[in-house]
Amino acid sequence: MKKLYIVIGLLFSLASCNNWLDVELDNKVDDNKLFSTAEGFREALAGIYSEMSKSNMYGQTLTTEYIDILSQYFRTNNNYQYWVGYDYKHNTSKNKISSIWNQLYSNISQANCILEWADKNASVMSESERNQVRGEALALRAFLHFDLYRLFAPDVKRSPKAEGIPYNKIFGVSLPPMYTTEEVLQLIINDLKEAEVCLKDDPIEKVVPYAIRTSTPQGDIIDKAAKDEADKYVARVNLYGVKAMLARAYQARGENALAIEKAKEVIGSGKFRLLQLSSVDQSETQVDLTFSDEHIFALRNRALRENAEIIFKEVSGKGTALQMYDGYNLYQGNRDDLRFSKWFDDFDFIKYLPDSNNIYPQKMPLIKLSEMYLLIAECCYNTAPDQAREHVNLLRRSRLRGNAEGQMDWMYMAKKDIFDEMRREYIGEGQMWYVYKRNNLDLPGGLTGTIEASEDIFVFPFPDAEIEDGHRTQR
Questions:
Q1: pLDDT by residue (tens digit) across 432-459?
Q2: Domains of the chain
């Protein structure tokens, strides 16, 4: 009988205030038993979120570490020398690339298993529960395939007929078919459109997550319990996460009007808000370093601080810190830029190093509200430059202290200014390399000068196992 590999104990329940993010032991569960209740489906979804949050996926590898190293943010040590030089053929690089491939497809397989059983055992859930489960699983399948496309395929706008990636829609299929880049993007959009319909009654529609407070005899307050409750709506795929994913996919295809439409739906929902100064002008236990009011989809990971400390601080016996090439010039030496003043301590990058008693859960943001503003700016720059500048300035007002009335707004803006703002915004989130790839931009080379854009830099090779087994041919 098929088995589904999940993490038991990470139970996600919007109806419960218990320790819904507790992670216990890995285990294997009989599918038939697991999917005999609605709770079993929620456990299976929670297993995917847990796996995605680990250090070998979005907890580190695909965010703060390898993808940001490819973006030329950091001076690196010998552990990363082949990555900073884009030597994907070296054995150390090949092993990491193979691990990334396997982890992404493994979680896609789990999403497909959930979808298969949601059809087989539809009767164990109410219609609303089944819609929620199917919507999240479809969105996760699309999200993971989209990152596989961004890592392993040529850009669809420049090479629509080129070989893309396998798109796996059936659980247990070891050899899913290969699709062209344009076919892959269409399959991603198809899954997201279906997920959007399934999640039309998503629980986030009934709340404004950032506004949740804990009621006490002294009045409503923001504390750990309030942040934990709010997190139940964004530490998983929700309706607006799907809309934001659609905005990304349309942007990737060059369908800028559709991308802008979806991004504006997210912004206009009122479920998220740009950073408020009051969120960061706090004591160490209450400062919001990751700007959580903006999180549309983020993954919780209690090891995030420990992992970041190993990468970004010189911790005896644990590792050697990565350091910014030139954080001062990146932020134009402006200590009024909250990203510079709050995310850096001298040369140490401390965005993911909160006080151990901080009230905000340790989370890796995968999609933030700020990205929607920058996406609109990039997509409409050529056709509506005033609108592009307006959205960048709105974002900057939430980042630059003393700019609430727009005293430091840009009156004129080149497209390069948008990319520079993205570089300031996306550090530690694994997004900037995709910006360079999407726009075929040369990369800043740190100490080595500009690095010319090319597929050798922007397209990972398929893992050797895929080639050796006759599954694929190498490009």
A1: 999 999 999 999 986 668 999 999 999 9
A2: 3-444 (1.25.40.390)
